[in-house]
Specification:
By secondary structure, the protein is an alpha/beta fold. It has three domains: 3-51, no CATH class; 62-163, no CATH class; 176-266, VSR Endonuclease (Endonuclease, Chain A, 3-Layer(aba) Sandwich). 44% of the residues lie in helices and 15% in strands. α5 packs across α6. The model has no long low-confidence stretch (mean pLDDT 90).
């Protein structure tokens, strides 16, 4: 097996020691580096020229991708703070600058050569680092995607806020926006049912018995827009009140959204007519 092929099998970035252990000689390594088929991001590391740049940067700076940064790489819902989050051991001297560095002990041990944290470590650092609501978005997304199991999480020595998040997290929310809305309305003590099935369709959030909250994303255009409007009309004809909101309203103008919802609740629009 050629050195580039071996590196590709290891994810494109690997420690020189691991490549040697798999049969790559120093001569082969030096020849591949001279030819430009392999690069050295840092002493003791090798990478393919087209390797994941995030992993190459982690190897170059002696850190592990974690928290919000790795959550995004895993495809989880996040509200990013615009910074790169990395982890470092207490013995490390990372050269990385302009990043948030997490020094805490990981829940799950990292094998030598780890460049990206496993999801349980990601969730713990998210819990330690992010505001509760924003951390809950990530936790719900991980449960919804099946990347973690609640019973397995409950057996881990979770720290601090992570225990609260485990209690609050639910796998039923299809997006982080649904998580934010439900979290912000939980104080009302009114039943909140995410992804409720009504007349053969799912609605984002059913508040009480008759108030439907639909959260529009980028797909709410063209045919989807027409289909959504037709379904809204069906719900209204069947006695439901439908409110549609978008990303910016939830993230930047929640006060107005909440006022509208509370006005509907005050009028009893969330209750079934008897």
């Amino acid at each position: 097996m050629s050195l580039p092929t071996l590196l590709e099998a290891l994810g494109g970035v690997a420690r020189t020691r691991e490549l040697r252990d798999r049969g790559a000689s120093d001569a082969r390594i030096a020849h591949a580096v001279r030819d430009g088929r392999v690069e050295r991001p840092r002493r003791g590391w090798l990478a393919l020229p087209d390797a994941d740049p995030d992993l190459v940067a982690a190897a170059a700076h002696g850190v592990v991708l974690t928290c919000i940064t790795e959550a995004q790489r895993l495809g989880l819902w996040t509200l990013s703070d615009g910074r790169t989050h990395v982890a470092a051991s207490s013995a490390a001297r990372p050269s990385v600058r302009g990043c948030t560095v997490h020094w805490g002990r990981p829940l799950q041990l990292r094998p030598p050569g780890t460049l990206a944290d496993p999801v349980v470590n990601v969730l713990q650092f998210v819990a330690d680092c992010q505001p509760f609501e924003e951390a809950l978005v990530v936790w719900n997304s991980a449960l919804n995607r099946g990347l973690v199991d609640r019973s397995a999480l409950s057996r881990l020595p979770l720290r601090g806020t992570a225990r609260r998040l485990l209690t609050a997290a639910k796998p039923f929310f299809d997006s982080g926006l649904e998580t934010l809305v439900a979290s912000r309305l939980r104080w009302t003590k009114i039943r909140l049912l995410p992804q409720a099935h009504l007349f053969g369709h799912r609605v984002d959030l059913l508040i009480g018995e008759r108030l439907v909250l639909q959260i529009d994303g980028a797909s709410h255009t063209g045919r989807q827009w027409n289909a959504d409007n037709a379904f809204d009309a069906l719900l209204v004809a069947r006695g439901y009140t439908v409110i549609r909101i978008g990303y910016l309203q939830i993230v930047e103008d929640w006060h107005s959204v909440q006022s509208q919802l509370l006005e509907c609740i005050a009028q009893g629009l969330h209750l079934a007519r008897r």
